[in-house]
Design goal:
The protein has 126 residues and is an alpha/beta fold. It has 4 helices and 5 strands, in the order αββαβαβαβ. Helix content is 33%, strand content 22%.
């Protein structure tokens, strides 16, 4: 009987402690339809163009949020791959402000073509 009680105590203790681990980031959610579309930002860093593609909201994103390591796409190829994950028909608004800017025309044209090929509606807000 004592063995059974000890066994049950160990199981109960293990079950209660299993929820005490460090909180972790939730798994990345695949891009899907967004009621507010998506927001695209770009900037140059050490001679390289960086991008951030965020789900659209009613509020203005902070620069820290835009440039967060979790959101930065380090190349045009990475941006194009991310755009390919978005369902056709979604709106993408590309804007610049403060330390954000638009890349040269050839890169803008590449992004425009990718959006067109994927059925995305790109609006470049100058």
């Amino acid at each position: 009987m004592k063995t059974i009680r000890s066994f049950l105590l160990v199981i109960l203790l293990g079950a209660s402690l299993s929820g005490c681990g460090n909180a972790s980031q939730p798994a990345a959610i695949p891009l899907g339809e967004s009621m507010k579309g998506y927001e695209l930002y770009s900037w140059q860093d050490s001679g390289q163009w960086k991008f951030s593609l965020l789900v659209g909201t009613n509020r203005e994103k902070t620069l820290d949020e835009i440039k967060s390591a979790d959101n930065v796409l380090s190349s045009v190829d990475a941006l194009q791959a991310k755009l390919e994950e978005i369902p056709a028909g979604q709106y993408i608004t590309w804007s610049a402000r403060e330390t954000l800017s638009f890349p040269p025309d050839d890169i803008v044209q590449q992004v425009e073509q990718t959006c067109k090929d994927e059925g995305l509606i790109l609006s470049v807000a100058s």
